[in-house]
Amino acid sequence: MKEKLYTIPINDAFAIDCECPICAMRKVLENNAVEFTMGPSYMEDDIRMETDKMGFCAPHMQMLIDQNNKLGLALVLKTHIDKTNKEIDKRMKMPSAGGSLFKKAVSNPLLEYIDGLNHSCYICNRISNTFGRYLHTVVILWKTDEAFRKTYKECKGFCTEHLGDLLKEGEACLSKSQFEEFRKVTTELYLTNMKRMAEDLEWFVNKFDYRYKDEPWKNAKDAIPRAIIKTNGMIELEDEKKKEG
Ligand SMILES: [Zn+2]
Ligand SMILES: [Zn+2]
């Protein structure tokens, strides 16, 4: 069976004029997941069971708050807290396994549960499955589609996290020689654009010097938010302009 490729969202992301098209495609997934979570779906039992179990990480909780659905958020929080209380109460009554008088417990169900919960997020989880398939599609398009290969080469590079993701995916699904080429193209794309970014930041800093006061800003005016996409993937899509205009 031929695997399903997600060519449309990938081409859309690479059409955006931004510092990391992979961040752009992840951001679309994230916005959709947040809207889905605070949309009518929070009243569906199977979805609520998942949000009750997983909860949300802090950045995604902030995005849920920004959706401004106070009733929805209160309901989601209430049943998540009910579930957490139930699980903690159950584990509090369990003995720690494997311990003895001289040895500390090797398993502690209560702490294991708390650690797991503190690292789980319904929205992160929802994004991650599709994101993996998108990443795979990027590499397969690079391998098979001449036009995409050109688009890829002309993009403004990637953030550091997604450089790593691309290289991992490339190594997993390309032949040795194809991967060598992919690695070279991708890493050079990253470095060239990171150097451009460093120059923009340098010019931004210069502009604080009275000697450069009357010089033009060149491309440096928005150097900080663009640099933060490169280092932390913090992208805001509404600020990005479509290449077509
Ligand atoms: Zn990125
Ligand atoms: Zn999250």
Brief rundown of the structure:
The protein is mainly α. It contains eleven helices and two strands. α3 (45-54) packs across α5 (70-92), α7 packs across α9 (160-173) and α10 packs antiparallel against α11 (223-232).
For the structure shown, list the relevant keywords.
2 strands; disordered C terminus; 245 residues; 68% helix; two-stranded antiparallel ribbon; binds zinc ion; 11 helices; mainly alpha; globular
Describe the structure.
The protein has one domain (7-236). The protein is mainly α. The chain has eleven helices and two strands; from the N terminus they run H-E-H-H-H-H-H-H-H-H-H-H-E. Strands 1-2 form a two-stranded antiparallel ribbon. The protein is globular, with a radius of gyration of 23 Å. Helix content is 68%, strand content 2%. Mean pLDDT is 92; it is low at 239-245. Helix 1 crosses helix 2 (21-38), helix 5 runs antiparallel to helix 6 (109-118) and helix 7 packs across helix 9. The site of one zinc ion (ZN) has 6 residues, from helix 7.
| Distance separating the two termini | 39 Å
Number of domains: 1
Count the E strands. 2
SS element count, helices: 11
Helix/strand order, N-terminal first: HEHHHHHHHHHHE
Helix/strand-derived category reads mainly alpha
Radius of gyration in whole Å, from Cα? 23 Å
For the largest sheet, list the strands in their spatial order. Answer: 1-2
Mean pLDDT over the residues:
92
The description of the largest β-sheet is: 2 strands, antiparallel
Bound molecules: zinc ion
List the helices and strands and how they pair.
Elements (H helix, E strand, L loop, with lengths): L6 H9 E2 L3 H18 L6 H10 L3 H9 L3 H23 L16 H10 L3 H23 L1 H9 L5 H14 L2 H31 L16 H10 L8 E2 L3
The structure holds zinc ion (2 copies).
